[in-house]
Amino acid sequence: MFIKTRSGLLLAALSVSVAAQAQDYLPILQYHHVSESTPKSTSVTPAQFTEHMDYLKNAGFQVVDLKTALDDLKANKALPKKAVAITFDDSYLSIYEAGFPILKERSFPFTVFINTDPIGRSSRHFLTWDQIIEMQKSNGVFANHSINHPYMTRKEEGETQDAWLLRMAEEVDSVERLLKEKLGVSPKMFAYPYGESNEAVRTLLRERGMVAFGQQSGVVSADSNFDNLPRFPAAGPYANLSTLKTKLNAKPMPLLSEETGGDFASDQAVTLGLTFKEGNYRLKDLVCYVSGQGKAKLDWQSDTKVVASAEQPFNVGRGRINCTMPDATGQSYYWYSNVWIRAGADQNYVDMH
Predict the structure, then answer these.
(1) Residue 22: its pLDDT value, please?
(2) Half-sphere exposure of 267 (CA within 13 A, CB side)
(3) Which among 198, 232, 251 is the end of a domain?
(4) 20 to 30 Å CA-CA from 252: which of 6, 142, 233, 246?
(5) Which of 171, 88, 86, 96 has its CA nearest to residue 126?
């Protein structure tokens, strides 16, 4: 309702303007190396990274602090329109040498998930605490990526389940102590090494009041699982700007529930059950792709529930199903991904649902 005064009309107009510029979801970009000489599968060159950051700036994206944005989403507080967050995994020196100057020039906030063992050993390819402190003073936030970057869902040879869980707790707790000691604060965020977790590990993080991230692609909203949040990889084969533009404009899949069968795949082909919220969605245009296999078979159980099936079992390692669906405008895609682990016989994975 408009108030018929100059100030009232201005306030009403401002409220409409703010509402039009808000969004209730967040795409998060994931990087590792910024270098021309590191493994291509996990790297962007400085030129590619500059291209990405220039696009964000020129296209009007609002680069936000990850921790603040997640807190706002959980509190159902709107984010700026075209909000996006930037993250790095691991403690690579190239983040400081090549990535940081580009970010600093644009005043973009960013988060680095650090594994602390190579920092403590003064490994020449990794960050130092002095460099981390310097970046912290220019919009850098440093979060937990374990001490040793282990496969967190694997036991060591001869290790009991209790001993494994204690070791995982120390991988988390030791870095939390270091962040507070060296930097004065921890954002209480954790990125699973290799993106792998199980329910015991997720519970461990949840009990510590921490938000955690996997390596499945997708967009974060208040409905997301904050024990295992998605991010979009933006390096290696995913560094192409046209592909990145599609992801930056993606929205969270409007799901009521999902049925994955757990964290682990067997010698049988996986299935994925998705139940959609009521709404004006282009469900007939939903497409799901199985890694290494092409399109999944879609079996609609009802008007709002579908089962996506792979044709073949996954090979040993990580396999995924990615699903996309155009929104009503056809200009953006809803996006969802799930990852399974197909364990090798000698890998000592702990399968806990």
Answers:
(1) 87
(2) 2
(3) 251
(4) 142
(5) 96
Share of the chain above pLDDT 70, in %: 93
Q: Work out whether the CA dihedral 229, 173, 93, 129 comes out positive or negative.
A: positive
Please name the residue that has the structure tokens 């990526």.
Answer: 145
- Residue 190 and residue 329: Cα distance in Å, rounded? 35
Query: Do 261 and 270 contact (CB within 8 A), yes or no?
Result: yes
The pLDDT of residue 162 is: 96
**Full residue range of the structural domain in which residue 111 is found:** 22-251
How far is the C-alpha of 311 from the C-alpha of 293, rounded, in Å? 7
User: Would you say residue 9 lies in a domain?
Assistant: no
Alpha-carbon distance of 307 to 272, in angstroms, equals 5
Residues 143 and 27 in one domain: yes
- Whether 205 and 188 have beta carbons less than 8 Å apart is answered as no
The tens digit of pLDDT for each residue in 121-138 reads: 999 999 999 999 999 999
Contacts 24+ apart (CB under 8 A), 158-166: 159/348, 161/350, 164/350, 165/200, 165/204
Q: Is residue 223 part of a domain?
A: yes
Domain count along the chain: 2
Do the domain assignments include residue 15? Answer: no
* Token pair listed for 123: 């490994």
Exposed / middle / buried, residue 27 (Cβ in 10 Å: 0-12, 13-18, 19+): buried
Residues in the chain where the model's pLDDT stays below 50: 1-20
CA dist list (Å): 243 to 15, 27, 52, 234, 238: 34, 14, 11, 9, 7
Contacts of 118 (CB under 8 A, 6+ apart): 91, 125, 126
Residues with Cβ < 8 Å from 313, sequence gap 6 or more? 265, 266, 267, 268, 269, 270, 342
Q: Are 196 and 151 in contact (CB under 8 A)?
A: yes
